[in-house]
Amino acid sequence: MCGIIGYIGSKNSVPFLIEGLKKLEYRGYDSAGIAVAEDGHIHRVRSVGKVAELEKAALLEAPRGNCGLGHTRWATHGKPSQENSHPHTDCSGDIVVVHNGIIENYLPLKDKLQALGHKFQSETDTEVIAHLIEENLQHISAASDEERFFLAVMKTSDELQGAFAYGAMWAKTPGQIIGVKNQSPLVVGLGEGENFLASDVPAFLKYTSKVLFLEDGQTVVLTPQGAKVYGMDGQEVKVKPVKISWDQKTAEKGGYDHFMLKEIYDQPQALEDTLRTAEADFIRILNLKTEDLRRIKNVYLVACGTAYHAALIGKYYLENFAGVTASVDLASEFKYRTIPPAKDTLCIAVSQSGETADTLGAVKKAKELGFKRLAICNVLGSGLTRACGSVFYTHCGPEISVASTKAFTSQIISLYALAIFLGQASGNLSRGQFNTLYKELMALPKAVADTLKIEYDVRHLTKKVYKANRFIFLGRNVDYPVALEGALKLKEISYSSAEGFAAGEIKHGPISVIDKGTPVIVLMPKNHLFDKMLSACQECRARGAFVIAVTTPQGQEEAASVSDKQIIVPQASEYLQPVLDVISLQFFAYWVAKRLGRDIDQPRNLAKSVTVE
To answer: In the predicted model, what is the mean pLDDT of the chain?
Structure first.
């Protein structure tokens, strides 16, 4: 989740760019850079690391100009390095681009441009945009350079596929910045004699609270005098400015009270962005050594914390769809237990940060055992991605809150995608079966967006139970790991005692901790195990539990007969239902913690990434 800032006005743009990038640091990044239109050319300054390093470099080089673009990069294509840092330029160095998102067709575009003589300096997908604008400029004539540049950008956007937002600048038109939005955020700040382009409001909120929110497919042209917005047909569109009343901290959170809540609501986009690359990336990974992958008989999944729960769900996927024997280990245990060497074994390491010490240790052991290694990770260039032979990246952007939400659901769908692609490669799934499963997967972000509507019901429900001393979560099959995750999430941010169990196990001991008023949250979508979950509800209720059923519309009536309250989530296919069910538990944990007055984003004793053993 990169950060964009652009300034155009009568003042030196550099201080505005640096300050704007600092305000976007909460989004996470690995490098930063600025570009300024100065005396008929573009002056770029880029650095790896924090904005403070960029600021030092900018002070030394002292660029100066009234029009500029800045960027903080969260790597998706190409390792973190100065060469891969934004802004990127064309061959002449006169066109400069900053970009958020993913250009899905960048490889064929790059091949075409290289065949035309364009020279690339980075590994990024972004650089394609700058060269494409350069190429299109050569074939466009207009009354002015400003109009030529606008038409070249419009033509370029038509040729791009994917989710992206970008800002572009040309040395020959230093009084103009152009921005394009398509499924990635981009906003305009309207000042007096100066205007701003940014990926998020905090970048310019100190200077103006008058904002234009762009829609997908729109292009904006900024000058010191104002901003004009155009639709995909090139016709001007009237967009009404919005007055922002947020303070700086609220703006960083998108108006939400906490980053955790914002990140829960980020999930439809996070899943869509992750799935956007699934087909191309998994085909590439599986096609590298297809014959070896067809021989895979055993899979070890290693992870810690929330990622471990995603791995537990992945076990069901791999065994059901790929037809392989899968086992799941806590990375901290895998490192130290005896693992028999076995041919045709794949180790899958799951981690948001890619820097978890225990997971890195487990992968090192897998390498020593001769296992093939695949990372499912959110951070390009992290230690885990370097230690594994193959990588699939989740594209959910940085998580600021310690409690993982969107990374968890992105890991689940990544494992699902891996399992069905592996199943097809091995012949365990027919083409027809694969197509059905893949279609269901691609429809999931919409179902997640619908599920978010339950927040009000969950918030209201927590009034009755938030002071309880103990919480129990129950699930079966693929929802059993979701029960574990629900308990962990509640423990992490509310500090309440919570445990998750497989529903069939409660008679074997856990039912003894249930007494009058104990909240028991039962995951019971309408499926082939629904009747078993009805029985579990009755058993808990007979001991005085306050039973909360998380069910689907098809099971609502029956669930109401054996529970005290119901949370109704949409119905999905059996193996994708956990993604919807867990959202109810994320909201549940959030609202219990909020009612208790906890520090939700930074709970006590916890760190986002555990980089020590």
So the answer is: 92
Helix residue ranges per DSSP H, 370-514: 383-387, 406-426, 431-442, 444-451, 455-462, 480-494
Answer for the pair 180, 153: CB distance below 8 angstroms, yes or no.
yes
Here the tokens at position 63 are: 């660029």
In the numeric block, the tokens 């895979």 are attached to: 296
Q: Which residues on neighbouring strands pair with residue 392, listed in sequence order? A: 376
Residue with tokens 């009000």: 456
Q: Determine how many CB atoms are found less than 10 A away from the CB of residue 433.
A: 14
Residue 396 tokens, joined: 């959910």
Beta strand pairing status for 325-330 and 565-568?
Answer: unpaired
CB count in 10 Å sphere of residue 337: 9
Q: How many residues does the chain have?
A: 613
Angle formed by the axes of helices 127-137 and 145-159, nearest 10°? 130
E strands of 257-344, at which residues?
Answer: 298-303, 325-330
**What type of residue sits at position 430?**
S
What 3-state DSSP class applies to 198?
A: strand
370 CA to centre of own chain? 32
CB of 550 closer than 8 Å to CB of 522 = yes
Q: Kindly tell me if the per-residue pLDDT of 467 is higher than 50.
A: yes
**First-last CA distance in the chain:** 29
Report d(CA 163, CA 185) in Å as an integer: 10
Strand order in the sheet with 470-475: 497-502, 470-475, 519-523, 546-551, 565-568
Q: Determine contact, residues 534/559, Cβ cutoff 8 Å.
A: yes
477 backbone φψ class: left, alpha, beta (φ>0; ψ -120 to 50): left
Token representation of residue 106: 């960048």
- Over 80: is that where the pLDDT of 447 sits? yes
SS (H, E, C) 119-140: CCCCCCCCHHHHHHHHHHHCCC
Residues forming the active site: 2, 608
Degrees (nearest 5) of the Cα angle 217, 220, 223?
175
Angle between helix axes 431-442 and 406-426 (nearest 10 degrees) is 170
Query: Among residues 116, 127, 154, which one has the least CA distance to residue 73?
Result: 127
Q: Tell me if residue 265 falls in helix, strand or coil.
A: helix
What 3-state DSSP class applies to 213?
strand
Is 112 exposed, middle or buried (CB count within 10 Å of its CB: 0-12, 13-18, 19+)?
Answer: middle
Tell me the per-residue pLDDT of 408-425, one tens digit each, with 9 for 90 and over.
999 999 999 999 999 998
Q: Could you tell me the two tokens for 472? A: 């129990």
288-292 contacts, C-beta under 8 A, 24 or more apart:
288/390, 289/372, 290/425, 292/344, 292/372
Q: Which residue in 165, 268, 272, 267 sits closest to 216, CA to CA?
A: 165
Tokens of 413: 């769908």
- What is the β-pairing status of strands 177-182 and 95-103? unpaired
- Residue pair 402/392 in contact (Cβ under 8 Å)? The answer is no
User: What amino acid occupies position 454?
Assistant: I
Closest CA to 144 of 167, 172, 179: 172
Nearest CA to 498 out of 448, 548, 535 is that of 548
Tokens 């919480």, residue?
471
DSSP 8-state assignment for residue 87: P
What are the DSSP calls for 97-124, one per residue? EEEEEEETTHHHHHHHHHHTT----SS-
Helix, strand, or coil (residue 295): coil
- Residue 169 to residue 153: CA distance in whole angstroms: 10
Does the pLDDT of residue 611 top 70, yes or no?
Answer: no
What is the Cα–Cα distance from 471 to 486, expressed in whole angstroms? 10
pTM higher than 0.90? no
